[in-house]
UniProtKB/TrEMBL annotation:
Residues 2-204 form the Tetrapyrrole methylase domain. One of its GO terms (molecular function) is precorrin-4 C11-methyltransferase activity. It comes from hydrothermal vent metagenome. One of its GO terms (biological process) is methylation. Its EC number is 2.1.1.133. This is Cobalt-precorrin-4 C11-methyltransferase.
Length: 245
């Protein structure tokens, strides 16, 4: 049995209880490099085989899985396994080889970053849609940045894109976004050395010019956190109707 476990965005306490339990019971842990907090690996037993997959290609990973899949095996990924984790190819391999697996959710950077910044993505009357994507660079996207930004009433969280923030600015302005549209960057979301940069299209590029590592870009009017209408969820009228029913 292979268990894909999301380690969370950086803070070791963001791993789920289920994920922690899987690590504590594991015979083998294959983890995805330096972005896994050391404290998380500290939950493994002393006799657990712990290997870093940073220098492995897919074939190396598949051979390693073949060798140890009969044991309690944890494949430890950063964040949440469903977001930019490249587990799809690994799952295809497991399916073809009739190897059982389970996926255990984790907290991805988009949500850890939002918590640190103290914001909500879905603001009544402003945005009810969250788009998680990356800005196309050397690797093409199915959707261009212009196609993504055409959803003007959406909240955007861009991964793997900090070096392309100038492209975001230029494209958004060309599409008649206001130069005052909020754009924030969370560097190393939930890590001890996390940093949050709050700006707009006008000034965010200058604010984050020295970032070299991992960072999340949040973009859109939702960052103003000003609902234009009240939600019915906590309205007195809605409460009365729900009580009657």
């Amino acid at each position: 049995m292979i268990k894909f476990v999301g380690a969370g965005a950086g803070d070791p306490e963001l791993i789920t209880i289920k994920g922690q339990k899987a690590l504590q019971e594991a015979d083998v842990v294959l983890y995805t490099g330096s972005l896994i907090p050391k404290e998380v690996l500290g939950w493994c037993r002393e006799d657990c085989l712990i290997e870093n997959s940073a220098d492995m290609d897919y074939n190396d990973i598949f051979e390693f899985i073949k060798l140890y899949h009969h044991k309690k095996f944890v494949r430890l990924h950063t964040g949440d396994p469903s977001i930019y984790s490249t587990i799809a190819k690994q799952i295809n391999f497991l399916d073809k080889n009739n190897i059982e697996y389970e996926i255990i959710a984790g907290v991805t950077a988009a949500f850890a970053g939002a918590a640190s910044a103290g914001i909500e993505y879905t603001i009544t009357g402003v945005s009810q849609t969250l788009i998680i994507s990356r800005i196309e660079g050397r690797t093409p996207n199915p959707e261009t940045l212009r196609q993504l930004l055409s959803n003007k009433n959406s909240s955007f969280a861009f991964y793997l894109s900090i070096r392309l923030i100038k492209k975001l600015k230029e494209t958004a302005l060309d599409m008649n976004y206001s130069i005052e549209t909020p754009c924030w960057v969370v560097e190393k979301a939930s890590w001890r050395d996390e940093a949050i940069y709050k700006g707009t299209l006008e000034n965010i590029e200058e604010k984050v010019k020295d970032i070299k590592g991992i960072a999340l870009i949040m973009f859109g009017e939702f960052l103003n956190q000003n609902p234009t209408i009240d939600s019915h969820l906590y309205a007195k009228e809605y409460k009365k109707e729900r009580t009657k029913s």
